[in-house]
Amino acid sequence: MEETMELNETHNNSTERLPLIPLNSVVQQNATDQMVQLVSVNQERETAPKRRKSSRRRKHAKLKEKPIILTPPPPPRRPPSALERHVWSLKPVEALAYAKEELKHAPTVIDDADLYAPLFLNVSIFKRSYELMELILKVYIYRDGSRPIFHTPHLRGIYASEGWFMKLMEENRQFVTKDPEKAHLFYLAYSSRQLQTALYVPDSHNMKPLSIYLRDHVNWIAGKYPYWNRTHGYDHFLVACHDWGPYTVNEHRELSQNTIKALCNADLSEGVFKLGKDVSLPETTIRTPRKPLRNVGGKRVSQRPILAFFAGNMHGRVRPILLKHWNDKDDDIRVYGPLPLRVSRKMTYIQHMKSSKYCICPMGYEVNSPRIIEAIYYECVPVIIADNFVLPFSEFLDWSAFSVVVAEKDIPKLKEILTAIPLKRYLTMQINVKMVQKHFLWNPKPLKYDLFHMVLHSIWFSRLNLFPIPRT
């Protein structure tokens, strides 16, 4: 089977799509401190008061008393199985064809300790697809591109998702290959946030220089390497969390139409985000890059007296309507603009979310909002108000199990909708929020099924879904 597989032609033919899932050991110190006997020279010296140890000596003594923590050695490598040897011997297009066929026969998952089935539309296909990703996927990262726009992850703030993915992807050894001939996917490691900071002229309202810059970079890649032209960008992907991310691809037709785009601004109504090809990237607020999991966790249901809460700037079309109907209108639904000082002195923004049963997550300038993932972090059931927003991982996750989606037109009926939810149903959703939380965490060292792997898996699944069936 030829590696190129005439992909230029086959993409024009019908593609068989996968059924989219509607959606230390602590080693104790084994050497005791030696006791030093003081020999008395005379009675005066023996009875004289002992000198107080210097602060440096006291500190040194404390350090000696602490147990030495050793990192356990890695487990010994097992020899690859016959299946692994076979799959690893396949050319990239052959391996993708194998994976696509395997997904048709995914074994049923009855009970899995790592996956909570009620969160998923089809946990069996998700698990098999994830296993195939771990077995097969190799990603080539283009090293071209000038810093800081390329290869400089932005790890703080509401656009941090693209930076954390870039950082963890470039540090990864399992999925990254240095041989592009072995790659199933090619990563354009640019930052939409850094692009905006570097090139946008404030108050110009002109985003074209950003898209021209990215267009020229892709043309450079296509001229230097054969991989883009081989598939016209179908096996390439980018990850962008800035609101303008979708608009930075407009000047390059293949980049816009063919490339897999993982976007926080996953708006179906704009015509840029393509359902079934592009990936909805969760927008996460990271306040402390050294501790990305800081403040994660919440209170018990009995400690959540507030029915619903929102505070934030009045961006976009939805929030002013929300404020109009619910600001100072009801004690159960606490809706503010920016949290007033008189309120925040008593209870901070995060404390409000941790004390609320439901957290209202209206769209801002664009459909995406970091409050959705914040709510999950603080174990508060998200109430999502954003028409045409494609929810993250909705090809696999059943968002109705742990969130409430309210149409923009139903904002006046918000309390009616929430109070109509039976207590048993709410308790189930709140438990599910806790269970789904691990899938939305940026771990400094990635863990199985965490946010890094979930994003990568969605990109992998999109590649499989769009992969053309070879001609016979």
TrEMBL record:
Q: Which controlled-vocabulary keywords does the entry list? A: Glycosyltransferase, Golgi apparatus, Signal-anchor, Transferase, Transmembrane
The UniProt entry, under InterPro entries, shows: Exostosin, Exostosin_GT47
GO cellular component terms, semicolon-separated: Golgi membrane
Name the domain of life.
Eukaryota
Subcellular location as annotated:
Golgi apparatus membrane
| Residue stretches spanning the membrane | none
The segment annotated Disordered runs over 42-82
Which positions fall inside the Exostosin GT47 domain?
Answer: 137-420
- Basic residues bias (residue ranges): 50-63
Q: Which GO terms describe its molecular function?
A: glycosyltransferase activity
Composition skew (Pro residues), residue ranges: 70-79
Query: What is the membrane topology listed in the Swiss-Prot or TrEMBL record?
Result: Single-pass type II membrane protein
Query: A Pfam family name for this chain?
Result: Exostosin_GT47
Family as reported in the entry's similarity comment: Belongs to the glycosyltransferase 47 family.
User: Sorted alphabetically, which PANTHER family does this protein's record hold?
Assistant: EXOSTOSIN FAMILY PROTEIN, EXOSTOSIN HEPARAN SULFATE GLYCOSYLTRANSFERASE -RELATED
Name of this chain's protein? Exostosin GT47 domain-containing protein
**Source organism per UniProt:** Cucumis melo (Muskmelon)
